[in-house]
Amino acid sequence: MTRTLLCFGDSNTHGTPPILQRGEAYRRLDAATRWPGVAAALLAPEWDVVEEGLPGRTAQFPDPVMGAHMDGRDGLKIALQSHGPIDALTIMLGTNDTKTRFGADAPRIAAGIAALLDIANSPEMQDRHGGFRILLICPPPVLEQGPIASEFTGARETSLHLPSLLMALAEARGAGFLDAGTVIAVSPADGIHLEPEAHGALGRAVAEAVRRL
Coiled coil located at which positions (predicted)? Predict the structure, then answer.
């Protein structure tokens, strides 16, 4: 029987390429290039992969600029009730939480991700899907450079503290863990998004981690 993997995240799950200038037209990497697509190809035919990446999504903050729907807590509930039954869930969030306008330090960001794990592990959601495992992915550290650097002032230092906090959180919540920063790096073009090669490497790492769940 085919199993289902739900990939929940932000623009780096959606497949947004590096931003070269502010205000540029919407772009998205093709399905075969995006890391969920890479993982899907490697996990097939045993697994189907569902992509739930929203550019701008945070773990916990309604965005005053992009909208209240950027709050991942509501988004995760919607995703888990829109798809299923699922057998595994990946969560890769936290990059947008480092934006200057949220004023969040690493422990605050980790607390928001803890809320997502608690939602996913709740009896309501687990019972709905007949039980599923979770892979928590810590995004790679940001670089404060490129056309959107002013939105991420101070973000690099914050993001460097996340891997150890999220690893401990995953262990405490019984989730698998992958530190994406040990596998890939963000593009120097904008300091936030991933080049195609990074998507490929991350997709391969995720496929391997899902098999171990």
Answer: none
Strand partners, 48: 4
User: Smallest Cα–Cα separation from 136: which of 169, 164, 105?
Assistant: 169
Per-residue tens of pLDDT for the chain, all 213 residues: 899 999 999 999 999 999 999 889 999 999 999 999 999 999 999 999 999 999 999 999 999 999 999 999 999 999 999 999 999 999 999 999 999 999 999 999 999 999 999 999 999 999 999 999 999 999 999 999 999 999 999 999 999 999 999 999 999 999 999 999 999 999 999 999 999 999 999 999 999 999 999
User: Which domain does 64 fall in, by range?
Assistant: 3-212
The number of domains in the chain is 1
Instruction: Output the pTM of the full model.
Output: 0.97
